[in-house]
Amino acid sequence: MIRYRADVHVDDGALKSALAEDVRRGLGAREKWLPPKYFYDAAGSALFERITELPEYYLTRAEQALLDAHATAILGEARPAEIVELGAGSPAKVRRLLAALNGTGPLARYVPVDVDASMLGRAGRALLGEGGVDEVHAVVADFERHLGRVPPAAGRRLVAFLGSTLGNLDATARHALLRDVRSLLGPGDHFLLGVDLVKSPCMLHAAYDDAAGVTAAFNRNILHVINRGLGGDFDAEAFGHYARWNAEEARVEMHLVAAADHTVCLRALDMAVAFETGETIWTESAYKFTRASVEAMLDTAGLRLVRWDSGGGFALALAVPARATAAVPHAA
Ligand code: AVJ
Asked: What Å distances lie between residue 286 and 8, 163, 244, CA to CA?
């Protein structure tokens, strides 16, 4: 019996042309920007793992504590036969969910969705070896583009989107993603969302500008990714790390700041990018939420909040598909 399978919807060629397109647009703009998904090559993923262990970066520990405390109750409510995990990354989060299933037997199927095929393979095989799940059906795909490719449900479904990854998306992209999530759910299915909460600016700033400089290295790593992918000659050390809390927009903004006037060449794009001293590349937004903002955001996507567990400045929101709204009758 085949217990691990992977459907591949993004290959290296597709990833490379998406990178080329995004960099051409982002670095060609008057206010330069880059999408945060390009942080995560092998080095960037390792740096992110180090970030999760920093004293200032409370998010991962807070979410883990919430999962340890409440996963049994959450899964008792959702009673899933399968878990679809978006932007799965490391198996640490789903492992906590599986541990909470004890007694009700192994999960029939785990469907992780992520662009990193090798990470999915390692995580999938490890989870199968641990016995918490019968079958892993990995979907190598971009969760912002390919949620339509998730295989049909194999039973009652829980879609999980943890780690506050949703916070990287702006309001328009969040809405589109939540609509896609809604269409993955049938009656009786659930959506579990992990979100970071609005809190003191000092704590937020420290979490994104740690004393050991790991977040700075993580931020600069995106320039190495571009150098390798597009034949660039960025000197990552010529950029400083800058993080600011934007209270109006409820987001932490991360930037790279050019230390001097200089020009960078991107061979694969035949593009020269000029920087002035102090000019920035906006590399990430990390939106922060409240219970009210989460409830409203879910609501406009056809999802209804049914459970809210918060602590340590973080929250787990459990939602179900809202009843279809009645069709508006024709005016007489
Ligand atoms: C993985 C998107 C949740 O926004 O906190 C960590 C990435 N950026 N430090 C976050 C990140 C800077 C992280 N997420």
From this structure: 28, 11, 10
